[in-house]
Design brief:
Elements: H1 9-16, E1 29-30, H2 42-57, H3 63-74, E2 81-84, H4 87-98, E3 102-106, H5 111-114, E4 121-125, H6 135-145, E5 149-153, H7 165-176, E6 181-185, E7 210-215, H8 216-220, E8 228-232, H9 235-242, H10 252-260, H11 265-287, E9 293-294, E10 301-305, H12 313-324, E11 326-327, E12 329-330, E13 342-346, H13 350-371
Parallel strand pairs: 1-11, 3-4, 3-5, 5-6, 6-7
Antiparallel strand pairs: 2-8, 7-8, 9-10, 10-13, 12-13
Helix pairs in contact: 2-10, 6-7, 11-13, 12-13
Amino acid sequence: MIQSNYETQLQKYEFISGQHGGYYRHDFVDHAYLYNLYFPPKPVFDHFKEQINDLVLNYPVAQDALAGLVAKVINQPAERIVVGNGVAELIKIVSGHLAKKIIVPVPSFNEYANAAPQGQAIEFPLEATSFELNVEKFAAQAQRVKADVAIVVTPNNPTSMIVPKANLIKLAQKLAADDCILIIDESFIDFAQNSDKFTLENELEDYPNMVIFKSMSKAYGICGLRIGYLLTANTSFAEAVRDGVHIWNINGFAEEFLRILPAYRNDFLQSCKMVMLDRDKLYEMLSAIEGMEVYKPDANYIFCRLPDSAISAPEFTRNLFIRHNTYIKHCQGKTLPDSDRYIRIASRTQPENCKLVKAMIDILATDETEKS
């Protein structure tokens, strides 16, 4: 269903920019939200159609069974897993209720800080213009502010940059001395080249203060199903989070997806390769734009600094939508120097990415002409 009750394209933009989903209803090209467009395959949807009566009419399973289903997908013990209604539910439990004080590098995913009570979230600025995490300084700051939970998103959102595994292990070791939990959000790690070399899922036994969060929405292309999980060898922490979720926090469609997912492992791996190919080609095209600073991506989105001669990122984003019906994210709401110069672009298919780059070049050229 497409909604078209807008008098102007500007009104449409103002409405869309205040929403957090439902974009498919509004007939525009979405280069803002971060999807895997190549998964799930059609047989998954055919299966849902065949099972729809049972999935709608019956109660889903509870947490212990859900953890067992995820365990089969990621080959981990079920007792280490807590399944959330998206990672957002788990973030709310940890940041909003369990943690006394969190520390998070910025810019990053805002929800970790937003979910914390006022005054209980400390932001650690990443060093511009590299935006790389200095684990020594981060650990020292966590110690100074007496944080009991530290968060690192890798690849980071919006920078799309991964933190090396060795650096995260070193960070976990430093934080352990102060009984500080390290949450590593690996929601986008499947889009990194050789992701097996970066994930810490198989290192948890040696680091009891290490916890992995993972949203399945991004990598598996199932934003509407709302599935995320926590993985840790720290069973007491897992139990504390598990106590915060209600008995039926996952619906029947999400449960069934987890149940059939192992059969589509090869399809999933192939879909990630296709996403990376599209992403890398988009990176090349964006890098060719004169004056644009483009950060090499490890996720399925690209972080850019607009040319100094260009209009601000909010203006650029608005003009792109009004003139080309294409939506990207500006970073003015993020904590970083010159935030109004940065944009985040989600990679889609190669034809869509080509159209986007042409539209961006048009906006830059038009605005430059209007200034002259």
